[in-house]
Amino acid sequence: MRTDHALEIFLSGELGVPSAENRSERREAAGLTVLHVDDAWNMKRRVADEFIVRTQPPAAVLPAVAAYHPVPDHLITLIGRPPTDHAAYLAAGYRHTATEALMVRPLTDLPPRDPRYAVERAATSTHLAWLNEHDPAGRAWLTATRLGEPRLRHSFITLDQRPVARVRVCRVDAGHGYVTHLYTAEAYRRRGLARAVMEQALHDAAAHGEQWSVLISSAAGLPLYQALGYQQRASLVVFEPDPARTTPA
User: Which CATH number belongs to the domain containing residue 129 in this structure?
Assistant: First the structure.
């Protein structure tokens, strides 16, 4: 998969599936792609802007962001930009918040599923209430709208009568899935649970006819995804307004 194609899957996956609940949309601002998020998250509505920077230098990006008048909750995400750009964002009142990797994997030669763990799919209102109440990250990540959306698949593993690992896959189009919300309860890490739930997610994606899986990995997640056969296509460096500084210019 080409890098530009993987980036398009990432952009669509981040916006999710449109609904009355999810009013997120893709916008443009002076040549920048803007992901305007307007969605329910953790039982609250979240509104945020994310500016995607591919080719523009800071001297062009910063005035464009200011002219757009973003909401306070906003990000500037650099895609493959040189480290020499970073100082300009720091000087403008932003702080570096994450370095991530755009990862892709063809859905061929899939790893075998771990027989130690049973991976379940969230499918009922009982699942919804129970998973939200006992989520390993303490987040109410499921809603009735998302549970009933056929383009979304929510998988989890239960141990000791509680969900200890979970993941969501968004079917962006007929050939591509976007992985989000992978999380393992802290007390259950280093047991292969994240790998197990991901293995099942890959097999499910292939069974649905998807040919590629795309995701964004943190630095900590890279070893897992590389072991699962994902390859890096681009580096993402993310900046957010620094609350200790004045409002970004």
Answer: 3.40.630.30
Which element (helix H / strand E) includes 114? none
Angstrom distance (rounded) from CA 80 to CA 76: 13
Is residue 247 scored above 80 in pLDDT? no
CB atoms within 10 A of CB 205: 24
> Is residue 156 a contact partner of residue 163, using CB atoms and an 8 Å limit?
yes
Same domain membership, residue 135 and residue 64 = no
Contact 187, 30 (CB under 8 A): no
CB 139 within 8 A of CB 172: no
- Is 183 among the domain residues? yes
Whether residues 114 and 155 fall in one domain: yes
pTM, entire model? 0.94
Structure tokens at 33: 């792609």
**Domain coverage including residue 26:** 3-102+235-241
Q: In whole angstroms, what is the distance from residue 17 CA to residue 188 CA?
A: 31
Alpha carbon distance 111, 245 (integer Å): 47
Chain centroid offset of residue 131 CA: 19
